[in-house]
Amino acid sequence: MLSIPQLISELPKAELHVHIEGTLEPEQVFELAERNGVSLNFASVEALRKAYVFSDLQEFLDIYYVGMQVLQTERDFYDLAQAYFQRAAKDKVRHAEIFFDPQAHTGRGVTIDTVISGLLRAASDASKLGITVYLIPCFLRHLPASDAESTLESLTPYLQQLHAVGLDSSELDFPPIDFKNVFDRAASLGLRRVAHAGEEGPPEYVRQALDELHVDRIDHGNRALEDQNLVSELAARQVPLTVCPLSNLRLGGVSDLKDHPLKQMLNAGLLATVNSDDPAYFGGYVNENFRRVAEALQLSAADIVQLSKNSFIGSFLDEQTKKDWVRSIETLEQELGVSAE
Ligand code: ADE
Ligand code: ZN
To answer: Active-site residue 74, yes or no?
Structure first.
């Protein structure tokens, strides 16, 4: 009988919540800093890694936005994404919908073309690793909505290469409703929509993301569990939640993974998925998130298989491709002799 960690290693996955800038490992920060002549405030890779201790989302974001300043050229964005795809392939990620933060780069003089060209070149090469890639630019909610609106207009030349827009950065005091206009505009351009909500913010923000931004998915969504009506609606509509256990642990959403709400979400019939968020900062890529949360919550083989299926069902892949993935997971389940209980 296969162990749970073995099962996790074997199953194909879609990663639906990873910020590509959050995959920037300390080693690569130093490498790119040297290449680009950027001086760092840390003496060594180890010193930088040691600084990755956060008590909340804002403490993390303060370091995250500084770290990404080493990304300056098309090649830097290519190298960043290429390193992530190589890492993800080892975890049997077969489809990745990656977030990036255009404003965090254009705000310091890097052009949108530099960012997107590098990411697209890496996405194209990822097919050699057996990974399909969709790109999702996110608006920074700590900046004015007007800034998000001009950012969206600057993205229109790349519309065919983008699948959705997202909303991220500091959540508390930055309600989704402030971004209604830009999300409406994205919808009119044919883009899907996702938003971080209920990571630190109240269930009301999840409600706004659904009702005002008309999102197709909720990123995190943990605090939705505080509102039973919201849970019923998310379950009835099978709105995917892109859950990130190690992120929640490292940013103080839960103080112990044993308290993580993932099992509760599955029990409530929610379409929960497991993802890595900012793996270079939070101590693990997607399989490590699966392993740690499975161990803490004593997830069954059936739960793990369900989460693998959910990752494709919750993706923006077309319906036939989703069905094909679900079927191939079922075939693998039989080959591996996974019991259905
Ligand atoms: N940007 C990168 N990671 C994020 C997170 N976990 N929440 C909000 N914004 C982010
Ligand atoms: Zn995130």
So the answer is: no
